[in-house]
Amino acid sequence: MTATPLADLLSDARLVAVLTIESVDHAIPLARALVAGGVRTLEITLRTAAGAPAAKLIREKVPQAIVGLGTVTQRRDLELARDLELPFAFSPGATVELLDAAMALGVPFVPGIATASELIQAMIRGYGVVKLFPAEQVGGVGALKAFGGPFPAMRFNPTGGVTEANMRDYLNLPNVVAVGGSWIAPLADMRAGNWAGIEDRARRAMATLAV
Ligand code: 3PG
Which of 56, 131, 136, 199 is labelled catalytic? Predict the structure, then answer.
């Protein structure tokens, strides 16, 4: 399958910070800390009320960040990504409604899959990159190697249980474009305003990538 702008964006990033933002006040210092640590690609999940306004704010105020949405579960989440002209939107799942809506809306969408049937649903609609979720729990590196047999063109962004300790095992696989993880920005650090700690974790993760 030919590379798409979305596949290129993710393979350039290699690491996507999965962010669940509790307070809009955290958005700017959080994004600045991550960018300072070298992690520019930020998936803002829609699990909290602050998620959508935080994504909008970061996009406006932290131009070095590449902002997309996560935990997309319904069409109106995709409409938000389209309205904000965001370069990516992730979902933990691959419902037919989401797969078709993202295509219709022209939103660069990464559906989440955990089974071959879900992967096929995405593949036959033209999706070339999927998120393996929850990666560690559904077989991790071994599952991705196994999917590479029947689906050699499919590219993966595993998330769920990815950490600084195992990220390289994933990224060494030829069918993995990037990994995602929330470990870089724990809620406790955000609540404590420990932006230096988050910057440090981001820097360590990027150093791990470079080895
Ligand atoms: C996600 O939405 O991708 C996951 O919650 C990220 O998984 P993690 O919290 O185990 O990193």
Answer: 131
